[in-house]
Q: What sequence folds into this?
C-alpha cells in the first residue's frame, strides 16, 4: 500500500491461503492428464484383497475386475499399474498372458471381444509402492509410534497399489478385503460387512461400496487407531485417531452431525452414502481427502481439546470442506482434472456456507475478503482461467480451483438470489447423481432449473482469466446535489483477461441515511451520476464486497475513519483499517484504529485494525496495541502480540512480551509472545527460547513456538538446540519445525546444509517437506543435486513438485559462485539480486505451505489453499 499526497490508495496486503487440503501436485515423472483418456471398457466392480508384510513394507494383493467392453474387436485390456509385480492374470477363470510396460499392464484376451461383453479379470500381485499406499511404522528413532497403513488416490495414484483404470471418468462399485493384525482397526469405503478371524492372529475386514465411485476415491486406513462411534439419521458415524490422540476427538469432530443436517438441507439432497467415517492419520500427504464415505485427515490438523477455544472456528473449516465433497466431488465427480474446480470450488464454497450458517455472515464475509486480497496479489494465478488444459497436475493453479472458484460460486449466488441458486444446485446434484461432469453440465443445470442464461457469467469468470482492477473517483456537485463517480477498469486486457461486465452496488450515505444505487460496469471507463439529498458522508463502491476485484478508491483519512466507524459490512470496515495503516503522523487515525481494535463488534476488524497500528508503528500506535490485550478472544490478543514484534528497540515492550509469555492463559498468545521477542531480536531471547523447550504444553505448542522463533531470531547460538530437536528420535512435528528453523540460521555453515540433505532420504513426508523449505531458505547450491533427485523419485503424490521445480531453478540462477558457496559468500550483482527476488516468490510459497503443515487453522484461506500452490481436499 502506498500514499499519494494526502490521499490514500487502499491495497490489501494479505497472504493467499489455501483450504483443508493443501494443493495436489503430480510428480515430475508422471503428470496428471488434463484430458480424460478414451475408454475401451466400463469398469463395473473392483474386488480387492490385500495383506501386508510390515517388515518389508510390502503389499500382497489380488484384484478381480468385472468390466464390460465398449466396442467390438478388443484383443487386450489395459490397466494402469506402477510399483507392482504381477504374478498371474486370469480372464473369466482362464489363465491369460500379460505384459507390463510404461506403467501399463496389458492383459491379452483369448479372442476379440464383442461390444457389451462382460469379463472378469483376476490379477495377483505384490509390490512396495512409493506413492498411493503408505506404511507409517515405529522405528529405532520413534519406537512408540502407532502402526498405520493408509492410501491416497488423488490425483492418479490408486494404480500404485491396485492395477486398475485410474482416471475419474468411470465409476465402479468396490469391495475392499483387508487382512491385518488382530488388534488393528480398518476403515474403507461403504459398509462394513464383517470381521472374521484369520491365521496367525490376524483378522479379515470386508467393506462394500454399493454405489459406483471414481477409482481415485477408493481408499482404506488400517492400524492402531482408537474409534468413537455415533449415528446420524440411522447412518453410522465414526471418528478415529491414532492411539494416544483420543483427547482430540471431541474438539475436532464436534459439529459433524450439525454439518450433516445443514448440508443435507442446504443442498436439497440428503447425505448420499451408507456411513461417514473420519480418520486422522500420521504423516498424511494433505490436510484432508474426501474418499467416498471415509474422509482421511492429517493428525497435524486436528485440534487438541485444550486448544480448541483458542481458535475462532476450531477445525470446522477442514471438516466442513471435506464433508461438502461427499456431494461435490464424490456424488458428482469431475470428468477430468481440467474441471477439478467443480470438486474443490464447491467444497471451499461449502466451508464458507457452514461458516456463514454457524459463525455468522460476518465470519463468511471476512473469509471471502481475505481470500480475495490474497488472490488478487498473485501474479501466477491472475492471468490463468479456472478452466485451462495447460496443466500437468490436477490443481497446478490451486488458488484458482479453490479460492477463486468459491468466489465465483458466491457471486453466482448473489446474482441469482438464494432461492434460485440453491434450486439450481439441487437440480445439478440430482441430474448428475453418480455421474462424471464438466462445467457445461453445471451451466445446463442452472439454465434448466431457473431459465437464466449464465453464459456471459461463465465466459468471464470461469473460461476467462483475472478479475477487475477498479479505479474509482467520486465528486460532489453541491449546486445540483449530484455525485459523479468515475470508474475505470485498470487491468491489462491481454490473453484471457478482458473487460468485465458486473453489477455493482454503490452506497451513498448522507445526513438522512444510506441509499443504494445499483449500476452495471462494463466499459474501460465510465462515469455514473447519482442524485442525492445532501453532501455525501460516505461513498462505497461495491458495498459489502460482492464482486471479486481490487479497488483503488482515493479517500481522505477523514473519509476512511468514517468508513471504519460506520460502515455496516465487515469488508468495508476492514478495507478502511487497511487503508488507514498507511497514514503516519496523524493522531486521529491512530485513535480511530485504536477504538476499532478495542470495540468493533467483529473480531476480524479488530485484528485488521491492530495490524494497521503495527504498520504505523508509532509510540501512540504502540499504546493502542497494548490496550487491546484485554480482548476476550485469544486469537485477537494473539494478533496484538504479533504486532509488538514490529516495535524494535523498546525494552518496555520486550518486558511486556516476557510477562505475556509467562502469564497469559492462552497458549497461542504465549506462543506469539515468543515469536514477537524473536522478531524484536530482544536481548536474552535465545536463553528464554531454550528454556521454553523444556516447558510442557498441550500438543507441544510452546515447544513448537520456541523452535519456530529460533529461526526468526537468526542467532547462531541456537544452532545446537535446533540440531538436537531436528535429529531422529524427537517427535516428528517438532523435528519438522526445527528443520525449518535451521534453514534460517548460520547460512555459511555447510554442515547444516549437509544435515538437511541427509534428512531428505527419510520416509516421513513431513520431514522431507520441511527439508525442502529449509534448503530453499539457505540458498546453498549444494542442495540442487539432491533436490533434483528427490523430484525425480516421484515420491510426492500430493506435495510440492511445482514449488520444488521453481526452487531448483532459482538455486541454479543464484549459484554463480564456486559450487558450495552460500549466498552470504557471493558478491552481490544485478543478476543475482534479480534471481534472489524471483526466488523469494518461490520461498513465499514454501513459507505458506510450511505454515499450513504446522497450523492448518491459520487459514482463511483456503486451500486454500494455498501457496500460490497449495489442499485441503
A:
Amino acid at each position: 500500500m502506498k500514499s499519494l499526497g494526502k490521499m490514500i490508495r487502499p491495497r490489501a496486503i494479505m497472504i493467499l491461503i489455501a483450504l483443508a487440503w493443501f494443493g495436489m501436485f503430480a510428480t515430475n515423472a508422471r503428470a496428471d492428464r488434463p484430458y480424460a483418456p478414451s475408454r475401451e471398457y466400463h469398469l463395473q466392480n473392483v474386488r480387492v484383497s490385500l495383506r501386508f508384510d510390515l517388515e518389508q513394507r510390502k503389499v500382497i494383493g489380488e484384484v478381480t475386475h468385472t468390466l464390460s467392453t465398449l466396442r467390438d474387436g478388443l484383443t487386450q485390456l489395459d490397466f494402469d499399474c506402477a510399483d507392482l509385480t504381477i504374478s498371474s492374470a486370469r480372464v473369466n477363470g482362464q489363465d491369460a498372458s500379460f505384459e507390463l510396460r510404461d506403467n501399463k499392464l496389458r492383459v491379452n484376451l483369448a479372442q476379440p471381444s464383442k461390444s457389451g461383453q462382460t469379463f472378469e479379470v483376476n490379477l495377483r500381485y505384490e509390490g512396495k509402492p512409493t506413492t498411493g499406499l503408505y506404511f507409517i511404522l515405529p522405528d529405532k528413532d520413534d519406537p512408540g509410534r502407532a502402526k498405520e497403513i493408509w492410501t491416497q488416490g488423488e490425483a492418479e495414484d490408486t494404480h500404485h497399489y491396485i492395477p486398475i483404470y485410474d482416471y475419474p471418468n468411470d465409476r465402479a462399485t468396490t469391495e475392499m478385503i483387508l487382512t491385518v493384525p488382530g488388534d488393528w482397526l480398518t476403515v474403507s469405503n461403504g459398509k462394513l460387512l464383517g470381521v472374521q478371524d484369520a491365521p496367525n492372529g490376524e483378522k479379515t475386514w470386508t467393506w462394500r461400496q454399493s454405489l459406483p465411485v471414481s477409482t481415485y476415491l477408493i481408499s482404506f486406513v488400517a492400524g492402531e487407531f482408537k474409534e468413537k462411534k455415533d449415528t446420524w439419521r440411522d447412518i453410522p458415524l465414526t471418528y478415529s485417531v491414532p492411539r494416544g490422540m483420543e483427547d482430540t476427538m471431541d474438539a475436532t469432530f464436534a459439529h459433524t452431525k450439525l454439518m450433516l443436517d445443514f448440508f443435507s438441507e442446504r443442498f436439497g439432497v440428503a447425505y448420499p452414502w451408507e456411513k461417514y467415517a473420519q480418520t486422522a492419520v500420521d504423516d498424511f500427504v494433505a490436510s484432508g481427502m474426501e474418499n467416498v464415505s471415509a474422509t482421511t485427515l492429517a493428525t497435524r490438523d486436528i485440534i487438541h481439546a485444550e486448544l480448541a477455544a483458542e481458535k475462532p472456528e476450531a477445525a470446522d473449516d477442514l471438516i466442513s470442506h471435506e464433508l461438502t465433497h461427499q456431494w461435490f466431488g464424490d456424488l458428482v465427480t469431475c470428468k477430468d482434472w481440467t474441471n477439478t474446480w467443480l470438486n474443490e470450488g464447491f467444497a471451499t464454497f461449502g466451508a464458507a456456507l457452514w461458516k456463514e450458517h454457524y459463525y455468522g455472515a460476518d465470519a463468511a464475509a471476512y473469509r471471502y475478503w481475505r481470500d480475495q486480497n490474497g488472490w488478487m496479489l498473485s501474479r501466477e494465478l491472475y492471468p490463468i482461467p479456472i478452466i485451462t488444459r495447460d496443466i500437468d497436475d490436477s490443481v497446478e493453479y490451486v488458488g484458482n480451483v479453490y479460492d477463486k472458484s468459491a468466489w465465483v460460486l458466491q457471486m453466482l449466488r448473489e446474482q441469482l438470489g438464494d432461492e434460485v441458486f440453491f434450486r439450481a444446485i439441487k437440480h445439478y446434484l440430482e441430474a448428475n447423481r453418480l455421474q462424471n461432469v464438466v462445467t457445461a453440465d453445471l451451466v445446463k443445470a442452472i439454465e434448466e432449473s431457473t431459465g437464466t442464461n449464465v453464459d456471459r457469467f461463465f465466459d468471464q469468470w470461469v473460461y476467462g482469466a483475472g478479475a477487475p482492477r477498479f479505479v474509482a473517483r467520486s465528486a460532489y456537485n453541491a449546486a445540483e446535489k449530484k455525485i459523479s463517480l468515475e470508474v475505470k477498469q485498470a487491468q491489462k486486457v491481454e490473453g484471457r483477461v478482458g473487460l468485465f461486465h458486473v453489477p455493482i452496488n454503490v452506497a451513498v450515505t448522507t445526513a438522512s441515511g444510506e441509499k443504494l444505487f445499483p449500476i452495471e460496469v462494463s466499459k474501460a471507463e465510465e462515469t455514473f451520476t447519482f442524485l442525492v439529498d445532501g453532501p455525501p458522508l460516505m461513498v462505497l463502491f461495491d458495498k459489502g464486497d460482492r464482486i471479486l476485484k481490487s479497488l483503488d478508491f482515493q479517500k481522505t483519512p477523514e473519509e476512511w475513519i468514517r468508513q471504519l466507524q460506520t460502515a455496516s459490512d465487515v469488508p468495508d470496515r476492514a478495507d478502511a483499517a487497511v487503508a488507514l495503516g498507511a497514514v503516519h503522523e496523524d493522531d486521529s487515525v491512530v485513535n480511530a484504529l485504536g477504538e476499532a481494535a478495542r470495540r468493533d463488534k467483529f473480531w476480524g476488524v479488530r485484528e485488521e485494525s491492530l495490524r494497521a497500528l503495527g504498520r504505523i508503528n508509532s509510540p501512540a500506535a504502540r499504546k493502542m496495541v497494548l490496550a487491546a490485550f484485554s480482548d476476550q478472544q485469544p486469537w485477537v490478543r494473539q494478533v496484538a502480540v504479533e504486532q509488538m514484534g514490529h516495535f524494535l528497540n523498546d525494552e518496555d515492550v520486550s518486558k511486556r512480551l516476557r510477562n505475556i509469555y509467562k502469564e497469559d492463559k492462552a497458549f497461542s498468545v504465549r506462543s506469539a509472545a515468543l515469536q514477537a521477542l524473536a522478531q524484536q531480536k530482544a536481548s536474552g531471547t535465545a536463553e528464554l527460547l531454550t528454556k521454553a523447550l523444556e516447558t510442557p504444553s498441550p500438543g507441544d505448542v510452546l515447544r513448537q513456538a520456541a523452535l519456530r522463533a529460533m529461526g526468526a531470531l537468526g542467532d547462531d547460538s541456537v544452532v545446537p538446540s535446533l540440531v538436537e530437536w531436528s535429529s531422529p528420535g524427537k517427535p516428528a512435528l517438532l523435528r519438522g519445525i526445527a528443520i525449518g528453523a535451521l534453514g534460517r540460521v548460520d547460512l555459511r555453515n555447510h554442515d547444516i546444509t549437509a544435515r538437511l540433505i541427509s534428512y531428505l532420504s527419510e520416509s516421513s513426508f513431513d520431514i522431507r517437506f520441511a527439508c525442502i523449505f529449509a534448503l530453499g531458505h539457505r540458498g546453498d547450491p549444494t542442495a540442487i543435486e539432491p533436490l533434483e533427485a528427490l523430484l525425480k523419485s516421484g515420491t510426492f503424490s500430493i506435495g510440492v513438485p511445482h514449488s520444488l521445480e521453481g526452487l531448483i531453478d532459482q538455486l541454479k540462477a543464484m549459484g554463480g559462485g564456486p559450487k558450495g558457496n552460500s549466498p552470504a559468500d557471493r558478491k552481490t550483482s544485478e543478476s543475482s539480486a534479480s534471481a534472489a527476488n524471483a526466488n523469494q516468490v518461490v520461498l513465499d510459497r514454501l513459507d505458506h505451505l510450511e505454515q499450513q503443515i504446522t497450523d492448518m487453522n491459520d487459514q482463511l484461506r483456503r486451500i486454500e489453499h494455498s501457496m500460490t500452490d497449495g489442499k485441503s481436499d
The first helix runs from residue 249 to 253. Residues 1-29, 816-846, 848-873 have pLDDT under 50 and may be disordered.
